[in-house]
Amino acid sequence: MNNPAYRLMLLIARLARLKDRMQVQALFIDGMREISGNKTCQWCDQLPAGGSTNIEICTANSSFGYFSYLTENDGHLDNVLVQNACQMIAVILEKLLQEQGLEQLVSKRTAELEAANRELEASRQLIENAQRTDKLESIGLLAGGIANDFNNLFSGVFGYIDLALDNTNDPSVSKYLEKALDVFNRARDLTHQLVTFSKGGAPIRKNDDIDRYIRESVLFTLSGSGIACEFFIAEDLNECDFNENEIRQVIDNVVINAMQAMPSGGTLRVEIRNVTLTIENHVNLQEGDYIVVSISDTGIGIPPSIINRIYDPFFTTKKNGSGLGLATCFSIVKKHDGIVHVESELGKGSTFFIYLPSKRYITRSAKVAPIVNHTGDGLVVIMDDEEFILDILDQMLTDMGYEVVQTRSGEELLGKIDELEQAGRTIKACILDLTIPGGMGGRHAVKKLREKDPVLPLFASSGYSEDPVMTSPGQFGFTASICKPYRKFELASLLNSFFGESGTVPASQKIPFRAT
């Protein structure tokens, strides 16, 4: 059919259907034959109202060389343009290009804003961790000094109780002394929390399956609480490098917090799995393989106002809390090259995520069974600034069969060794305290001793258990280390591992010291 009006009606109907399927940006209509008789704009009025379609009436007869509103529809101007053909095409293309350019600009600016927000969030997390680390370091020297003093005192307590146990046949006395040792073991654990804050090297770690230690710690801490526990442990779990005692301490503190958040009971969910992290999904850790331990409770949750302070030393909301529990967790995990992260919702509970690197091998630490009846012979030189430690260590070594010479500083030690050598005496070993107030400690004396004898067994002793010398003694010239406070069987185990049960060093084991 050649009726222009009918064709235009078909076009309008087709356009209406087309609009339901896709967005139409422009409609070009030949208005030449519609100028007389059939008004093109009347049919344009039948288009759906409220659309954004540009209607272009193309005619070579039009005198309009600019945009113009042609008609009104229900009180508003229709978006109808009348132009000369060439002008019209150029203008509409320019408009479409401008719209596309604006959309691209908006998309680009949105992406830039999202990237900036991610950078700001990453910076915020780094700043918070730096501030938290500064707070830990600010009490590091104080805590380390206090811990060392406590450990020296505990060495006296442990030592005298051990000696008393060796010299009593009264079962009731032995019973009370053993109970006293149990109490002091707990005190030693508390002191170790202070040591955690002191500056020092990495903890002594071993490569092992971590899941059994976590399971044991969780179940032990929950025993008698009435809280249900669910474990979800990956079958292909990687091995992890960790310090057993410190990781147990982390798990204990997190579980205790969960118990306190569920005073009426609840459920604790423990999940252990492998995860690979990138810089994009965790800005506070290096890329690589990790084990993540998540511990979730169904407790009261942590208020948003304090969630960023829970790792601060001495911060607590509990009446009888010390404020060291979670701060200790943060410090221990950080020294394991990991991180602790928490998510919480009031009324629903909290989840602590503990990330620890996996597949990082550090020299395995062989477990040495306690040797109580070690016997030896030969001359052992000991050095310490505390008289009661010298007295106890002298008695322990004497009971094992050794001859003992006491010294109180590095200067006295070196002089005494010269005297003994000039007298033709052979020294079996030396046990040296690392720090001597106002004098030369073992840290410096060992260098002088190594110049004289590269194979002499030299044992470092200190209450600073996190000191690099204690964690890596071989790197500083020592043969091994023993942390204060120690008991007689621990000293016997150390000596047995180097001298054997009879106290004789095989020639094959006399390997010269080489600094690494």
Domain module tally: 4
Shape: elongated
Largest sheet: 5 strands, mixed
* H and E string: HEHEEEEHHHEHEEHEEHEEEHEHEHEHEH
Helix content: 40-55%
Beginning-to-end CA distance, first to last residue: 99 Å
Question: CATH superfamily of the largest domain, please?
Answer: Histidine kinase-like ATPase, C-terminal domain
What is the CATH T-level topology of the largest domain? Heat Shock Protein 90
Low-confidence stretches: 32-38, 60-85, 360-371, 505-516
DSSP E strands, number: 17
- Give the number of helices: 13
- Rg, alpha carbons: 40 Å
State the secondary-structure class.
alpha/beta
CATH class of the largest domain: Alpha Beta
Spatially, the strands of the biggest sheet line up as 7-9-10-12-11
CATH architecture call of the largest domain: 2-Layer Sandwich
Q: Strand fraction band?
A: 15-25%
Structural description of this entry:
It is a single chain. The chain starts with a helix and ends in a 17-residue tail after the last helix. Residues 32-38, 60-85, 360-371 and 505-516 have low confidence and may be disordered. It is 44% helix and 18% strand. The protein has four domains: 4-83, no CATH class; 138-197; 207-357, Histidine kinase-like ATPase, C-terminal domain (Heat Shock Protein 90, 2-Layer Sandwich); 379-509, Response regulator (Rossmann fold, 3-Layer(aba) Sandwich). 29% of the residues are buried. The protein is elongated, with a radius of gyration of 40 Å. With 516 residues, it is an alpha/beta fold. The chain contains 13 helices and 17 strands. The strands form five sheets. The protein has a five-stranded mixed sheet with strand order 7-9-10-12-11.
